[in-house]
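thread: overnight batch results

M.L. [08:02]
morning all. the overnight job finished for the chain we discussed friday. pasting input first so we're all looking at the same thing
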Amino acid sequence: AKKVAISVEAEAKNFNARALMRKPKISFSMRLLPLWTQIVSEWFKHLLRNSPSIIG
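M.L. [08:03]
and the structure it wrote out:
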């Protein structure tokens, strides 16, 4: 029973370590998302302003 508990604990620690390694990537993209939407929307506005032929 002790061996099982130890291996479970080791698995949990291993899982936590992997989750921590993965987390920064996710939060990084989440931080970048608003910036990208802003850039894209600005670019679209710019595009629409400079080419009325697309609208008409």
